[in-house]
Amino acid sequence: MNPDDYNDHGMLRLPLWFWTILILQARTWLLFVMAGASRQQGSDMLSLFYPDPQSFWSGMLLGLPPAQVFLLSGRRHLWPRTWQAGYWLLLAGMFATFALQGLGVWQSTDTLSAVDIILALLDAAALAYWLLSRRLRACFDAARRLA
Predict the structure, then answer these.
(1) Alpha carbon of 109 to those of 6, 53, 93, 104, 106: distances in Å?
(2) I want to staple 56 with a disulfide (CB 3.0 to 4.6 A). Which of 43, 50, 77, 109 is the partner?
(3) Long-range contacts at 124-132 (CB < 8 A, ≥ 24 apart)
(4) Is the pTM of this model over 0.85?
């Protein structure tokens, strides 16, 4: 690794795809904030993306760990063990999200929407990157510091 890849605390800088995956995983929270900001059309926006209230609440629950990891990312040098656990927590959340999407597709009697297919493909790509990226895994390794 290049010394420019490290921040002032001697930890690897987080890749751009890390932030993209966090946004993807916390999408229900982002939609919730946007719906709250738009006031009159907020409930229409939520019902468009989440016609089933149960899927909205499961999205909120599964989006909580990415939001917490986002908040922790700036102070990861202070809590290295918690930061390491965040890798596995997000991985479990991605598997749960992917499993719930598969279950929803399997139980659906309606035709699949393009949004559902695109989100499933994006979640699959995010999961593959999360599992295969050595750089991302090294960012969560507390012992991996600049000497």
Answers:
(1) 50, 18, 26, 10, 8
(2) 50
(3) 124/98, 126/20, 126/21, 126/24, 126/25, 126/94, 127/94, 127/95, 127/98, 129/17, 129/21, 130/21, 130/90, 130/91, 130/94, 131/91
(4) no
What is the 8-class DSSP label of residue 41?
G
What per-residue confidence (pLDDT) applies to 145?
A: 54
Report whether pLDDT(34) > 80: yes
Query: How far does CA 44 lie from the centroid of its chain?
Result: 24
Query: Which are the contacts of 111, defined by CB distance < 8 A and separation ≥ 6?
Result: none
Token digits for 83? 């930061």
Averaged over 100-114, what is the pLDDT?
78
